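Final report, closing paragraph on structural work. Over the funding period we assembled a curated collection of sequence-structure pairs, and we close with a single example.
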Amino acid sequence: QVQLVESGGGLVQAGGSLKLSCAASEGTFSTFAMGWFRQAPGKEREFVAAITWSGGSTEFSDSMKGRFTISRDNVKNTLYLQMNSLKPEDTAIYYCARARATDAPITTSGYEYWGQGTQVTVSS
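Its predicted structure, as stored:
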């Protein structure tokens, strides 16, 4: 059973930065693409960023381009999301997920395993 554990969330002022981490429990981490999604209260879960199995290609939601960076360390079985220039509208629970294959899907259906999420709150 794959377990994904997010960390690094918290409260930050607008314009600040946070770096989220997602630790995977098992050794096939490097075989699959990974992604980040977020869900604000009363809203649908939305795509944030994704990265292929090798880290060679990434995808971002338009609203995060230029502010967020996704990366992975296949030795440490860890996924990262560096978030800069944070805005109050970035407030949400952030989830990491393991894809069903090696590409980087941008929809929830492309992912098989999910973490429990970490809260990010951006104050104005």
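The radius of gyration is 13 Å. The chain has a mean pLDDT of 95. We thank the funder for supporting this effort.
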